[in-house]
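User: Can you help me understand a structure? I only have the sequence.
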Amino acid sequence: MSAYCKYCWPSKTKSHLNNHIEYYHDKLLGKFLKRKKQSNFWGKFLEILAKINIVKFVSNPDDSNLYNRSLIFFKEAKKRGLNVSAIQAFGKYDNTFKYILNDQAIYYDGIPLNRIGDPIIDLDNKIEIKKILQKNNLPVSTGGYFTKLDEAIQFSHLLTYPLIVKPNNGSLSHHVIGPIKNEQELRKAIEIVQLYRPDFIIEEYIVGRLYRATVIGKKHVFICEKDPANIIGNGQSTIAQLISKKNSKRGKKDQFDSTLHEIPIDNVLKSKLQFLQLNLKSILPKSKKIYLHEKFVLNAGCDIISRTTSTHQENKKLFLKVAQVLDVDIVGIDFICADIERPWNKQKSAIIETNSLPYVDMHQYPSQGVPDPVAKVVWDHILASK
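Assistant: Let's start by predicting it. Here is the structure, written out as tokens:
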């Protein structure tokens, strides 16, 4: 694992140069409200490339080549008899797709509601979204945006520890450091986060459970809880055996067409066990639950628990308001509170960030609870609007 960035684990990242280039590109040209590739131009350009076999429109791609968050929509479209194809360039899939509806070719990124060419707000720009949510009196963690260490440290004196530091634009918990207990830890955290990109967010660390809400068409809400990789003892099996049993029901760590992934047995896990004064041969007492990794990411083996039916109506109204305020047809919302079954305004809670291309397959393939028919709802929404 030493060849890869340990702060991006379990992603295999060797360089962050592209993130720094993106930062300066956005700073010079502006990004927050911009237009993506123009759909008409993009479509014509792809058709030209297809004629010389640089690009292919593949109507029956191998499932293993597509991320499950995209695959569920592709399969649902095929089930309905829609003319849909995955776009392959230079022999590789790039998570873009094409479907034809009413004789019109429509191109999209990953999820059919993310149409190429539509004006779009940058949902991944954490500070800009935070400002919009604050302006609309929606709950967010107190924090600020910085590129300079001294200014960040000065601002931290206005906050209450523990704190958390994260890149202003990033995903999969890359270089997210927290909880931070003091200024010395904060200085080190800022150093780590700026390896990823120059700009970062400092905010108060909210204690609670992590939930993902996805809003579709400003009227459909799906919610799940993310629980870091864990096992529960039975008083007989070793930790290695418990992990093996859980992994037998999941896809491989780097398997695209699977939502739930194996818990990786690596040096990170072994270090965690050592911290707990355990090892792979240890036998956990019955009902004893331990966490094996800290990150709430799928390829680290986290659990996904369906919470749509148990979520309090006031929280559902909150998530719907976020989509309405941001004026988007699809948004993933990371939300922290102690109990999703209680109203958000009756407990400490915060919207942590939003996502433009959320892993919606989490709702359709949870590890626990009733699956939500996300792909069906998305296509129903698209076809009803035509």
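Now, to help you interpret it: The CA atoms of residues 69 and 360 lie 6 Å apart. Confidence is low (pLDDT under 50) at residues 32-37. Let me know which part you'd like to focus on.
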